[in-house]
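tokens incoming
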């Protein structure tokens, strides 16, 4: 999104305030030990603190020994929260501007250096050898041209829980679950309320040309299931807590073969 704070509210003569202004604009309003905030005038309010209040209950209070991955970490708010609970965190973002903010803020918010920040996109994680006990995939999905590919890639990395947050559009009221199969002559049923759907944004949404897809709730949950994930709770609006589905999925071998081909890996048949 393009909704960001200029950081102008922190302009002042002290060194921390000057650094906040120098590193602006900010999308994460970090609360620093010095009493400063990085985005006190954020148009969404105290963001993402109010999102964390919804998510935090789905995460154990003690994350000692937990390996966590924060995809699209931005300035590191969620990474620092996980580190505060004892996790070792790999935080990834393709934007060097946000990574500069995160590395500067880590000097105050991550004194034990539990968070490792690095540049990269979700697609590059397809060759990640390490798996993670906890993965955060927050505010990223709708920015991707290839969202289902990204979900398949992320699902491979998860050994415990995956938490997804994504922009959605309103769902169809009073819809019925979609049929498991349709004939070629029943395609009009694809327009019925309750059928998973996503709006494609050709130009811009909220003045942001990277907002490509806006799915409804049914579509998000269907996509997660198709990636071999099971939604175990929805602690807040547009927030999905998932685990790997361990049951046999007859579509898994085809899904895994397509994913290997997309990554340029030798063909393999995996159980998921």
């Amino acid at each position: 999104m393009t909704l960001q704070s200029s950081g102008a509210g922190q302009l002042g003569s002290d060194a921390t305030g000057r650094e906040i202004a120098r590193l602006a604009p900010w999308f994460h309003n970090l609360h620093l030990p010095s009493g400063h905030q990085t985005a006190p005038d954020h148009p969404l309010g105290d963001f993402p603190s109010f999102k964390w209040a919804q998510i935090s209950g789905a995460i154990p209070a003690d994350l000692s020994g937990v390996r966590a991955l924060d995809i699209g970490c931005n300035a590191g708010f969620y990474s620092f929260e996980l580190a505060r609970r004892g996790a070792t965190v790999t935080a990834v973002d393709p934007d060097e501007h946000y990574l500069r903010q995160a590395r500067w803020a880590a000097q105050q918010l991550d004194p034990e250096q539990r968070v490792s920040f690095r540049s990269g996109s979700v697609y590059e994680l397809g060759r990640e050898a390490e798996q993670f006990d906890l993965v955060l995939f927050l505010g990223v999905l709708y920015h991707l041209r290839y969202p289902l590919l990204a979900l398949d890639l992320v699902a491979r990395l998860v050994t415990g829980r995956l938490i997804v947050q994504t922009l959605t559009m309103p769902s169809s009221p009073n819809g019925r679950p979609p049929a498991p199969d349709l004939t070629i002559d029943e395609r009009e049923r694809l327009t019925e309320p309750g059928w998973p759907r996503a709006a494609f944004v050709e130009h811009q949404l909220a003045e942001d040309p990277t907002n490509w897809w806006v799915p409804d709730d049914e579509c998000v949950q269907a996509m997660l299931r198709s990636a071999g994930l099971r939604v175990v709770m929805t602690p807040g609006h547009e927030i999905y807590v998932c685990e790997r589905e361990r049951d046999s999925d007859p579509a898994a071998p085809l899904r895994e073969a397509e994913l290997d081909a997309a990554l340029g890996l030798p063909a393999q048949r995996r159980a998921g």
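note: The two ends are 33 Å apart (CA to CA).
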